[in-house]
Amino acid sequence: MESSNESYDLSNKVIIITGSTGGIGRSFIRIISSYNPKRLVLPIRDRVKGEQLLEYIRNSQDGKVECIELWDIDLADLHSVKRFADKFVKEVGELHYLWNHAGVFNFSKNITKDNFEEQFQVNHLSHFLLTTLLIPTMKRSATPESPCKINFTGSDTMKIANIDLDNLNGEKSSGFVKLHANSKLENVVYSNELNRRLKSSNVISLACHPGLVNTNMGNVLPFLEPLKHLFMSTFGLPPDTGAKYILYPVLKASIEDGGKYYDQYKLVNLTGQATDENFAKKFWDKCEEVLRNFDAGLLE
Questions:
Q1: Which of 149, 176, 193, 290 would be 280's cystine partner, CB 3.0–4.6 Å?
Q2: Is it the case that residue 233 has pLDDT exceeding 60?
Q3: How far apart are CA 241 and CA 137, in angstroms?
Q4: Measured on CA atoms in the order 117, 119, 122, 125, is the torsion positive or negative?
Q5: Please, which residues have CB within 8 angstroms of residue 78's CB and are 6 or more apart in sequence?
Q6: How far is the C-alpha of 118 from the C-alpha of 297, rounded, in Å?
Q7: CA 179 to CA 173: how far, in whole Å?
Q8: CA-based diameter of the chain, in Å?
Q9: How far is it, in rounded angstroms, from Cα 34 to Cα 299?
């Protein structure tokens, strides 16, 4: 996968990718669609952006729109996530690769309609719910010869994170960068614990960081937009490069063990809460508690 010219035959794979309509997502979808997946299901919130993505791929030299399906979801609405998962299990019933890529980076504390801090809900809690609901389908789809894989997109902000189980929603004072950092560490803690619970199932869970990529991620005040653009265009990687880093852990056949974290193509040994098994169990239980307190039927 290190070669940018490497290709794959995904004609027997059903794939879900969140976060497809902006930033790395557009390049990500264009590249993976060129590998001819059986079904490429894209959960999207904004239909207009979804159609713009399809038009972008139609006009590309390598992408294929024939395999792409746009399905409605709003990661800031837990009931929307539940509806998506239930529909997918009922109507599709097989899933081989799941990329939990969607995320927000806010420069203010935003609250969703479900009354959660937006970065906690969109980046982590909704992906926790979505993945948990899809796991039985992935287990049925997996074989020893063809394992299924789940991947979470990470962030370097994770280095400053410290998860407080009594402050997941940012009820106590937390800066916006710390809230984002925590949400990305939460992804990794969940991924590692999920992988442990998936032992002997032929399904593995991984996480990766694509590096700083030149995208429009991060909502800043209007007068700061030119500065953000200058910084990202100067120091950020091209979106195609970032997309290949995200594809790597899943499509690289030699990566057979989950519970790993990749920084671009490099395997990184994490420490602290990311690898603390006792903490991970408590965190998992806390997330389930949060979901059940919101609506006891979400996890059913």
A1: 193
A2: no
A3: 31
A4: negative
A5: 114, 121, 125, 126, 129, 291, 294, 295, 298
A6: 22
A7: 10
A8: 54
A9: 35
d(C-alpha 67, C-alpha 13), whole Å: 11
Environment class of 91 (CB within 10 Å of its CB; exposed 0-12, middle 13-18, buried 19+): exposed
Average pLDDT, the chain: 91
Task: Report the 10 Å Cβ neighbour count for 257.
Answer: 8
CA–CA distance from 40 to each of 32, 69, 95, 99, 194 (Å)?
Answer: 9, 6, 10, 11, 23
* Identity of the residue numbered 21: T
| C-alpha span between 166 and 176 (Å, rounded) | 17
Backbone phi, psi, residue 261, to 5°: -130, 125
**Cα–Cα distance list, 271 to 47, 186, 189, 260 (Å):** 40, 14, 11, 12
pLDDT in tens, 116-135: 999 999 999 999 999 999 99
Two tokens, residue 11: 């004609």
Say if strands 97-100 and 148-153 run parallel, antiparallel, or are unpaired.
parallel
Alpha helix (H) ranges present in the chain?
A: 24-33, 47-58, 78-91, 118, 126-141, 176-197, 225-235, 239-251, 277-294
CA distances from 151 to 127, 253, 270 (A): 11, 14, 16
Q: Is 100 exposed, middle or buried (0-12, 13-18, 19+ CB in 10 A)?
A: buried
The residue count of the chain comes to 300
The rounded radius of gyration (Å) of the Cα atoms in the chain is: 18
Q: What is the pTM of this model?
A: 0.92
Q: Is the dihedral of CA 268, 280, 186, 146 positive or negative?
A: positive
